[in-house]
Structure formats: structure tokens, C-alpha cells
Write a structure and sequence with these properties.
With 161 residues, the chain is of the alpha+beta class. The protein has helices at 23-38, 41-63, 69-81, 144-153; strands at 90-95, 98-104, 109-116, 120-127, 130-137.
Amino acid sequence: MMLAVSPAPQTVCARATDGSQGEVGIKLRESIAEALDSRTFEDRGAEIFTRVSAALHRASAEDGTFTSPEAFGRVLEFLNLLPPTVPIPEVVVESETEIGLDWDEGSRRVVSLTVRDNPMVGFAAFLGAEPLYGRTPFTGEIPETLRFLLRRLYPGPRPCR
């Protein structure tokens, strides 16, 4: 007995039927490549440092609050671990030992973190009708709870690391 197997059907895409191969798709790919080339990690690191420094300056000038070196270092470490899919948050000095990070994407889409000068990070989130809050340890990588909250706020192709 002889058994014949036909090959799997081949998919054919023509420019006329596939928008990703047309002019619009080509322009989109070019604009993405250009954006990725111009947005280097050094630029993001400089933006992070600028935002944190501006918050420290505002706090010292307006309230006379000076942040501990530990809180400053921990907030820089945390922000540098964020993936590019998560925008850099607003930075607010809350006290001498706490720096706040705020992402506000409109009604019912808010995540706020408090990075302290100790290993704990406080969090409060309002996502839809669901308020979430608590504390979690930060020991050199973004804790799973915070990755979950940021993925809910910014669902993107790459997960938080």
C-alpha cells in the first residue's frame, strides 16, 4: 500500500491584498525603525535623571525637603529597570525617605508607587473599578506585583522585566 501526502498549502501574499506590503506598511515600518534609532537607552536614562533631579530641586526649594541618598539611588535603580513600553512617570518627593512615581492615564487608570530608602515599595492603583494597594519588597528587580500593575496600565508587546 502506498501512502501519498500532499505538501502543506503555501500562503501567497500580494501587495494588492496585504496592507503590510503596501506603501502604508512600508512607511509604518520605516517610522518605527526611525523612532527606535532615535530613542536610545542613553536618552531614556538622561530623561530619568532629569525628572528625578527636577523633583529633588523642587522639593528642596519649595518645602526645604532633602531626600536621603538611599531613596535617590533606589528610585534611579527602579526607573532604569522599566522596559521601554512603560513611560517614565511623574516624580514627586514625598518625604526625606520617600519618592513617589505616578502614572496617570485618565479616569480609573492610575498607578502610584512610593520608593523608600528601605527595600519596600508601596503601591496604590485604580484600574477600572478595582482599587489595589499594598507594599512589596524591591531587591534589584521589579517585583511581580508591580509588573502586573504596569502591564495592566500599559499592555504592550514586551512584558516588564
